[in-house]
Amino acid sequence: MGFLKHLAGEKMLADYARQMANVFDRETGEIHKAQIFVAVLGTSSCTYAEAMKTGSAPRPFRSAWS
Predict the structure, then answer these.
(1) What b/e string do you get for 20-41 counting C-beta neighbours within 10 Å, with b at 16 or more?
(2) DSSP letter string over the chain?
């Protein structure tokens, strides 16, 4: 594991997980494939993750972190 030097709050690291996840839809009973989006605030290690339908864009970060 490498270390990045930066000030607190200066950087957020974001990426999609390589593997797809199976997500169960309670309303329909279907299983869907989803991408896992992950973002981490480097210094605090505060982590956000969200399963999204394939091809959809992540929500704006201001609402994701609230």
Answers:
(1) eeeeeeeeeeeeeebbbbebbb
(2) -------TTS-EEEEE-SS-EEEE-TTT--EEEEEEEEEEETTTTEEEEEEEETTPPPPPHHHH--
Is the Cβ–Cβ distance between 44 and 8 less than 8 Å? yes
Question: What sign does the dihedral 32-14-59-47 (CA atoms) show?
Answer: positive
The answer to whether the predicted template modeling score (pTM) of the entire model surpasses 0.70 is no
- pLDDT tens digit sequence for 9-66: 677 788 888 888 898 889 999 998 888 888 888 777 788 888 887 655 555 544 444 3
Tokens of 42: 């480097």
